[in-house]
Amino acid sequence: MRIETESDGVSASRDHLVFAYYVTGHGFGHATRVVEVVRHLILAGHDVHVVSGAPEFVFTSAIQSPRLFIRKVLLDCGAVQADALTVDRLASLEMYSETAVVPRESILETEVKWLHSIKADLVVSDVVPVACRAAADAGIRSICVTNFSWDFIYAEYVMAAGHHHRSIVWQIAEDYSHCEFLIRLPGYCPMPAFRDVIDVPLVVRRLHKSRKEVRKDLGIGDDVKLVILNFGGQPAGWKLKEEFLPSGWLCLVCGASNSQELPQNFIKLPKDAYTPDLIAASDCMLGKIGYGTVSEALAFHLPFVFVRRDYFNEEPFLRNMLEFYQAGVEMIRRDLLTGHWKPYLERAISLRPCYEGGINGGEMAAHILQETAFGNHYASNKLSGSRRLRDAIILGYQLQRAPGRDVLIPDWYANAETELGLGSGSPSFQMSETNSVMDHGIEEFEILHGDTQGLPDTLSFLKSLAELDAGYESGQNTEKRQKRERKAAAGLFSWEEEIFVTRAPGRLDVMGGIADYSGSLVLQMPIREACHAAVQRNHPSKHRLWKHTQARQQTKGQGSTPVLQIVSYGSELSNRGPTFDMDLCDFMDGDKPISYEQAKKYFAQDPSQKWAAYVAGAILVLMTELGVRFEDSISILVSSTVPEGKGVSSSASVEVASMSAIAAAHGLTISPRDLALLCQKVENHIVGAPCGVMDQMTSACGEANKLLAMVCQPAEVIGLVEIPSHIRFWGIDSGIRHSVGGADYGSVRIGAFMGRKMIKSIASSILSRELPSPNGINIDELEADGVELLKSEASLDYLCNLSPHRYEALYAGMLPEAMLGETFTEKYDDHNDSVTVIDPNRNYGVIAAARHPIFENFRVKNFKALLTSATSDEQLTALGELLYQCHYSYGACGLGSHATDRLVLLVQEMQHSNKSKSEDGTLYGAKITGGGSGGTVCVIGRNCLKSSQQILEIQQRYRDATGYLPFVFEGSSPGAGKFGYLKLRRRTSPALPSKISTLQI
What we know:
alpha/beta, seven-stranded parallel sheet
């Protein structure tokens, strides 16, 4: 490794400048990169006043100069961490409010006076929001230098803490808007508040000593393997043990407390140790991802074993950069805490990090800051307008995310070109219909059962399986960067054994939506996009284990026990791990399965692996509900083309495909309806999302080009409705993430169940004469049928069994607009919904939430009848009007969004344009779908070329208005029941070593 000698850096200036450099109070990463920029400014002869809450040694250990002034002031708090890996989101917002919001006026007054007192020429912020506003108030230009901004980070926290904290995000964004431009560092997040952007290379602190010198000072030979434990200056908080390290290894520990006792193979570093030298002298690093650790790992070509943090949105962007340059190995959190480090460390030292980009970002940033302070203006980034629109959509999406869900960066953003010149999208199985693709997939496998039905995505999935085999056999990586999920999948199966493949589509909610949990009739269409699952069972003694899995079993001393190993494609789009593994005995409590609540807590331990609940949860449900016992190990590969967060049931397709494949591999015969109900248990009780059953029923029971008609009481399929040949449905994605785990969906559901309980109570009171009838009729005047009707309403099992006219006549005027949870439980005790819990301190909308399913059920029945009526323009107009009514009813419940409203308005503009009126109308209606609050809009129109052209025009107009090109869903495919399963055997097994028991990933 070459150590660069001191360069001239920023050209020395005869003009003396004064910089005020504000540094955020979050961690050491910001302070350490500021050091490098400040060093170059001081070398150029300028004074720099650093305003920071970070320890002084971070700055003084790297810079000894009378031109450096340090002012210990904390003006923001960053993210408050409960421990080294967990962010406390509510505490973060509360602390920021205490630190920067409550005393805001006094802060601004103090900072303006101070800036004038030091005669500052330029204010620089990394990335303290209020510093930009203070600079504006003082009449001084300001620049930000960062890879992320706090409005983006806090946007996620708002959903966990409550909407009343949204003002914090908007205030931060407004503060940043006073900044003249952003000097943007690699690995950046969306930052819509900044008007212009200048990109620079990595900012990395220089080395003071060589590897040989550092090791000599530490008394460590060059042949000793050395790992540095670096969690951003925070104590790790757990007891380190000698056996955590491979034999002969040593570990340097950063941030250890003075009282912490370490084993003999762990070395405690001084608080003021200069970590760049120590990092460069190590063989690998173990820690959490942050800008400082990632940039120095890349610069010094050091493999980085990382553990994901909870709820920190900067991480996916930095992780993608780290893995692109083959410098990252992910460690599962439980293996970190239990000391199963060996397989990860050994994997790390086999890597060859290949970053060759610039590391002089500090020098470049200092030069830009100097020239700006002199009054020079940099040209505006010509892409800034579209970039800000794009980033603004991301921020809006962040503010609508569900609490506790993994961070997901939408594919359109993640696939955009960055300074790396790469896309980070998931492996996509293109629906190519070329014979070469189809033939290749089929030729590689002998199909012992089932039929591909000519589905292009299934043939493409088989092709991907064959390529995994070929890749494993060759051991060659033809790409510069191979995704870890592909590496893990390549060694997942024993190719001489049978593999079971299933397929389950997503669904487009045509009519019914959230009324499913109130017993409505729903009409759902299975879409073309689907999830495939491949499952193989092996005797534990023959199961090829990942190294960390084997190490865990050896520690337990159990020998060969059944293990579950899962690989999920698409992990790089979200902050989740691509693999999951567990001992199947973890699902047992003595001789019986653990409870669903225990399983929910088990999967919630590590948010980066919470996704596995959708797949592994199927095993526990089969154990609990059907008494199945799993004696063999199980390998599962999940690959889905159903986009996440777009309201088209991506989770249901994963659950149905996974359970179908597990059932097929174990010889279980389960009807599609029963399988859907079992999958709903996975989502309700193990994942913890309060969804109805229509998603799983459509994915399991649907058929291509038909609408599944189902009465959700609880799940009675009443038939399949042929889509008339002259009618077509489309789905247009709004770009705003949808989640049934979100607060709005759950609160509307609670409001509906509250309304049902109140209606039952009102009916009972009328019968007992405690209340007069709202329509003025005395109970004694009612005929027997009227009394029976009231009795049925007093025991109402589903809201949708109440007709609209009865609701309007008797109950609408007696329901409250909203009610506090505590008030409701005091009066009515419980709302009788097993999958939601009333928050006593929350106000729930009642009348709109109760009204929607009653009228939606009526609308769906009319829609179904109209579909089979005579073909006419009036038929299409009436169908479209029902969609519009449904859409606005969602909005009345609070489940609308600006993005979906915009799409519906575009459809209306197209429908009512003079051009459409002069010709035969083509588009007739649109509505938000599923759980609402974003997601996809369903559009109905005439099945003709003109309609498709208008859908494309709407797609382009939406992009022009928002910067986002929406995904269009069109076409249909069979449900899992109709597809069945494939049983495959590799035709020609590759020559593998006879005893392969462990695999590196």
